[in-house]
Amino acid sequence: MREIKELLVQKINELLDNGTVDRVAGWKAGEFCYDAAPAVFTKENIDELLYNGFCGANQSKFLVNAATTENRILALLKPCDTYSYNQLVKEHRVDPSRVYALGIPCTGMVDVNKIKALGITGITGIEEDGENLKIATIYGDASCKKCDVLLERCMVCKGKNHVAGDEMLIPDEEAPETPSCADRMAEVARLEAMTEEERFNFWREQLSKCIRCNACRNACPACTCRTCVFDNAKSGLAAKVNNTDFEENMFHIIRAFHVAGRCTDCGECSRVCPQNIPLHLLNRKFIKDINEFYGEFQAGADTTTKGPLTSFTKEDCEPSIVMERGE
Amino acid sequence: MQVNEIEKKEYTPLIVAFCCNWCSYAGADLAGSSRLNYPANVKIIRVPCSCRVNPLFILRAFQRGADGVIMCGCHPGDCHYSTGNYYARRRMTLLFSMLDYLGIERARTRVEWVSAAEGAKFAAVMNEFAETINRLGENRKLRDLRCEK
Ligand code: SF4
Ligand code: SF4
Ligand code: FES
Do the Cβ atoms of A199 and B103 come within 8 Å? Predict the structure, then answer.
């Protein structure tokens, strides 16, 4: 990752100097080294740019507001971010002529909570080490297996290929790969196999943890409405209190529905949720159903194909297919 | 046992039926004018097209105390706006599947295509659906507790 960072800085400086772009959307360290947050840089503060295993945040959504000026902005896109970027371009939320998209390689982003859960604390840095990660801490160096600490979405990485970009930092064929650690639909299938009552209890327990902070919605690159249904105080859907009613369920069903067929499974919602609710399991259920009912579909794979909910065929299955499925 | 609990046993389900203006609502009309019986607790909400039914409408109906929600529209291919019901069909399929995934009784939701000439079908569908909902009993999983007086 260190060599990549050097290459990246070199490239960014080149693009800033030759006037291709005047700003860069990247990551900046926060209070701690693992608090990497999206930030916009110019020539003056570009040396604060960070790119390491903590830079999970997807830059593409920020372009909705940031890519509106005459001068182009440089977007650093990891392979999976390019799917979100395509989707935003397809929906005319981002104007690609105002962006210079640089595809950057990624070897998997980590979930710092998983590292802490292994008893590794006082983290000061992170370094690639093949299948493992070397973690520098104030108590000395520690090491752990990558598959144990990757973000949920990186465990089921979409691969090293970028699907969009004006330029690639290094060609995809030469880029390093993220190890695949899990089966994407395994957890959805496990839930489907449960009884109705078990499923209800599972989701009741998960969703009642929701504090309606809206972080999942705000970070989601598919949720880009200027005014959201949940922002309407009169809708009766905007309560903040965590109560025993149906409201969180409704919020989550509707949110997942609004992004169905558009969600690229980028995993931002689960990553940002402070309550650790496995929101990707809702989105993946829609993805699984769409694939089964209407044929394989990957949102953001290109900028032209019609989405499954904005198209149809006359031979589509009837909703009763849900009833006919065995318990 | 409390008195009001005993009283509660006499429960009649509340069914909300979203009917498109051009076919199913006319079908309901025909059922009425043909003097075919269907349960009085089926409350019809007329919508311009089945495609107008936002998933939120369905959830909202449940939240406000419906025990079953059915959506009726023109037969696929016969939509007044040509293709509305094709989109609605995909939407409802996915929504129902999601409700099922969340552990909500899947028999509480349904889609039926009823044309303006199918008064008898309308009555039969509603009777059958009401029976299903009666059997399932009160909807507890999707209810909004704050709405209870
Ligand atoms: S939840 Fe729905 S309305 Fe709200 S921002 Fe997301 S897609 Fe838009
Ligand atoms: S991020 Fe988590 S806690 Fe916040 S609204 Fe979304 S699900 Fe609820
Ligand atoms: S008008 Fe009846 S379904 Fe569209």
Answer: yes
- What φ, ψ does residue A141 adopt, rounded to 5°? -80, 145
Q: What average pLDDT does the segment A30-44 reach? A: 89
Architecture label for domain B14-136: 3-Layer(aba) Sandwich (3.40)
The count of structural domains within chain A is: 3
B5: number of Cβ within 10 Å: 8
What pLDDT band is residue B3 in, cutting at 50, 70 and 90?
Answer: very low
For residue A271, what are the domain limits?
A: 186-326
Rounded-to-integer distance, Cα A125 and Cα A142, Å? 10
Which of A302, A314, A271, A320 has the alpha carbon at shortest distance from A89? A302
Question: Residues of A with CB below 8 A from B60's CB?
Answer: 250
Residues A228 and A140 in one domain: no
Q: Kind and range of the H or E element at B46?
A: strand B42-47
Q: How far apart are CA A54 and CA A239, in angstroms?
A: 33
Residue position matching structure tokens 């509660």: B8
> Model confidence at B149, in pLDDT bands (50, 70, 90)?
very low
Q: Which of A254, A264, A303, A268 is nearest to A284 (CA)?
A: A264
Q: What is the pTM of this model?
A: 0.91
Helix (H, G, I), strand (E, B), or coil: what is residue A143?
strand
Domain shared by A166 and A228, yes or no? no
Among A159-168, A194-203, A223-232, B113-122, the range scoring the smallest mean pLDDT is A223-232
Residue A120 token pair: 């590794």
Are A26 and A76 in contact by the 8 Å Cβ rule? The answer is yes
Over its C-alpha atoms, chain B yields an Rg (Å, rounded) of 16
Query: Which secondary structure element, helix H or strand E, spans residue A66, and what is its range?
Result: helix A63-66
B9 contacts chain A (CB < 8 A): no
Is the domain of A42 the same as that of A169? yes
Distance between CA atoms of residues A125 and A52, nearest Å: 9
Chain A segment 279-318 residues within 8 A of B by beta carbon are 282, 285-286, 289-290, 293-294, 308-310, 312-314, 316-318
Counting ligands in written order, the one closest to the CA of B111 is 3
Q: Looking at the domain assignment, is residue A179 inside a domain?
A: no
Q: Which of A197, A229, A285 sits opposite B101 (nearest CB)?
A: A285
Q: Using one digit for the tens of pLDDT, what is the confidence trace for A201-210?
A: 999 889 888 8
ipTM confidence score? 0.90
> Hey, which residues 232-251 in chain A have their CB within 8 Å of chain B?
243-247, 249-250
